[in-house]
Design brief:
By secondary structure, this protein is an alpha+beta fold. The protein has helices spanning 3-29, 31-36, 81-86, 88-101, 115-130, and strands spanning 46-59, 62-75, 135-145. The protein has five helices and three strands; from the N terminus they run ααββαααβ.
């Protein structure tokens, strides 16, 4: 290697060290000021997946077929996800019972599923089990018609 390349490499290395040192100095120099201002951090919402919920579909008061649904429970704070996940079997059981009792078909005569009613049942069940301080909503992410 030529001496010119060695000098350039040394200059680049020294420049990068100086830049890193300056950055660290600026961050640590303002650290006390930043800590005294009392920065607050917003809570980040989280999700817990509820996959494979079965919905019985009836036509003329007779069982027709099942639909399988995937959903997510929207949490107000991501740190509550472990607690929600631990209680998920109870939630799945409660939602399964409720959706098998209630009609999930549309009431306006249009054939199909009333997704808004399904979401409302799931949301009310989540509030009942976890509380309003934990649950922010329910998202239905996928619905699949079972093959009979």
């Amino acid at each position: 290697m030529s001496s010119k390349k060695i000098i350039i490499a040394a200059f680049v290395f020294i420049f990068l060290l100086a830049a890193a040192g300056g950055t660290i100095f600026l961050v640590l120099g303002n650290f006390e000021q930043l800590s005294e201002e009392g920065l607050t951090f917003e809570k980040v919402p989280g999700y817990v997946a509820v996959d494979g919920v079965s919905l019985p579909i009836a036509r003329n008061r007779k069982f027709s077929h099942y639909m399988f649904m995937d959903a997510k429970i929207v949490l107000k704070d991501r740190s509550d996800s472990d607690m929600v996940f631990a209680e998920l079997p109870f939630y799945r059981d409660m939602i399964m019972k409720k959706l098998h009792k209630e009609k999930v078909g549309r009431e306006d005569g249009v054939p199909g599923i009333d997704i808004r009613a399904v979401k409302e049942h799931m949301y009310k069940t989540a509030i009942e089990l976890y509380g309003e301080t934990v649950v922010d909503g329910v998202l239905v992410t996928k619905m699949i018609l079972s093959s009979n």
